[in-house]
Structures are given as C-alpha cells and as structure tokens.
Amino acid sequence: MSRAKHPIVAAFLLTCLVTLGACATGERPSFSTSQSAPGEMTGDAAVDDVLALLDEAGAAPFEGDYSILTRYGNRETNASVTQLTSAERVVKVGRITFRFADGITSTCRSLPDDCESGIQDRRISNTQVTHRFYAEEAATRLRADAGNAVGAGAGEQRQVAGQPATCVTLPVSGGEVSYCALDSGVLALVDDADVRIELTSYRDAVGDTSGV
Fold it and tell me: Are 184 and 63 in contact (CB under 8 A)?
C-alpha cells in the first residue's frame, strides 16, 4: 500500500479550508481535475475494466453497507447507500445523512431537525471521503493512481461481501493500491494510502427512500 497521500484529496480539503463558504453552499464537484472525467480511460486494460464499471455506479439501483477506515487517526466509520436512481438516493456516513429526492438535496445529522439544504461534504471531511465515495469519487481516485503508477495493473476476480467483483492492483511509489467494483458498477473495495473502503453487504433491489 502506498504511503503517498492522494494529491487530489489533499487539494480538495485545502480548498475547503481556504474557501469554506464555497464548500458549504451546496453540492460541489469534489476532486475535480482533468483526470476525473467519467468515460476517460487510461490505456491500462486492468484499470479500465474497473473504471468502466465504476462509471456506471451512479445510476445503479441498490442498497449497500460499507466500512470506511481513515488511515490518518485510524478512524473507522460505518456508511450505507440506498439508491433508486441518480436523482433519488440516501447516503449515510457516520451520523451524517445526505438525501436526494424530488430535486431537493439536504444534509442532516442523526436528529431530523438538524439539517441544512444542499450537500455539505465538509461535515464528513474528517473521513477523507465525500458522499460520492461509492461511485464517482472511487473512479477519480483510481484514475489518479493510474496516472502515478510505476507499473501495469494486475487484474483479478474476487468475492466481496458475497458478490463477484472485478479488481485491479496497481504498483505505486511505496507500495500498492487496490480497487474492486461489482458487476453493477458499485464500489466493492478501495485500499490506498488514505482510506480502506470495503463493501460489507449488498442488495440490488430497493424500495422507496422516504423512510431511510
């Protein structure tokens, strides 16, 4: 596993600290660089197999639970995603809940009356992930690592949370990083210098999100 921190993650967090207002006024693109465009391939077949899946995750109907280990501080956080469509979903990271429904977005703590309009990723900045951790963010991380790799990726098939997953392990300066995605495109595993995100349960049929 690489010891080098993700420059994209660091740049995003620094931008939030310098321009906090911009990060707090609604859903913003996180990790926005030229490497992050969905559909952009790297030329490494093993990497691109995983990227092609991750780029589809934003529209996959599913319910999933995750374990997130933030290496800085050795912090463990539980997370879950209930997604009907790209426009209707609920993402929970620790005590923070992000809701997308009927064109309205909100960010809430455990208590239902502690909510803000818009998507406020700053409220989970200590985890070093955003509400997109299971889809676009994972693809962006992988594209960044592929750009910094010191060798070709090694592809393999694994089982994660009882589901078949397509995986790639990349050699980077100081170690290796690994990524896996399910056939639906949903993230199954990220294991890099900053975080380890692992799917712990998965269901591909969901109901409405109103009671979540």
Answer: no
